[in-house]
Specification:
disordered N terminus, alpha+beta, 7 helices
Length: 361
Amino acid sequence: MDVDESSGTGSAHGRAGGGRAGGGLTDVRGLRVGHARVPGARALTGTTVVLAPAGGAVAAVDVRGGGPGTRETDALDPRNLVQRVEAVVLTGGSAYGLESAAGVMAWLEERQRGVRVGPDPSQVVPVVPAACVFDLGRGGDWRARPDASTGRAAVEAAAATAEGAQVPEGAVGAGTGAVIGTFKGGVGTASQVLDSGVTVAALVVANAVGSAVDPRTGALYGAYVTERATCPSPAVHAAAQLRLAEARERNGPAPLNTTLAVVATDADLTRAQAQKLAGTAHDGIARAVRPVHLLNDGDTVFALATGAKALGEKDPLALNEILAAGADTVTEAIVRAVRAAEGVEGQGGWFPSYRDLYGAG
């Protein structure tokens, strides 16, 4: 099993890129992120694990795509039993790739981490919510997909990182084979520290049917929100449009796709509040990708709250700034994912990167 280290994994298909100038999910203390990819010259898929601190984190989920592939999401309903989870799995391989969560469960069970169901400390059932993106055949091998060994490699990679370690971005983990519109997608992450001292952060796998790029100008949709977007020159944009038309003709119809996100905070949230955070974070996808939440998307957002910092009890609206920041960090993470990605060309198709066609943008 090939594990993507802190600088990402290079291959004939492309390599990871990007930095951490805007922070990342691990700015929420206690959270760790690990990536692994499926080996093979014609494999372009992998798994990403977000590992919570021992004892877990309050978790919630909001699914809005019309074609989701998920596991254990019902357990996160605030009306149900499970209070905290130890890990969240984001994976390629469509529904097949959900098997990767089994490897994470096994790793957690070995460490007696999970919901205790018997008198012995070893008698636990780890609840590991998971969601998948469609990337089948992106490298040319339809049967290349994550399995339990991929999930174990990703959680081991997460556990091996130091607290606050840089999160690799681009074509890593679940973003290895990601495509957003006609462009290469991938993993991106971002964070904010609010005036209250609360940290809010997001990690995304940008793999959408819709586009992250304004067809009128070539600017990234999300950049209109996160910064003063710089539009490419008309000549650069015209040349890019010609190359994208070539890619669409070569690749054929747009495949099934999905954008996944984990939005996290160190605030002490109830499960209902975490559910609200997962829901409003979808707005961040909608600002950066158009159209969004289609029938052939599986757009899913998980929310995690570690509970290290109290929410303002005297202010009934104290949650609002966290909700707003959650959407903002998701948008920024998608922008970073697109900028970090590098193009791939192989038997599975030609997916140019934004940087290939527009430069740094």
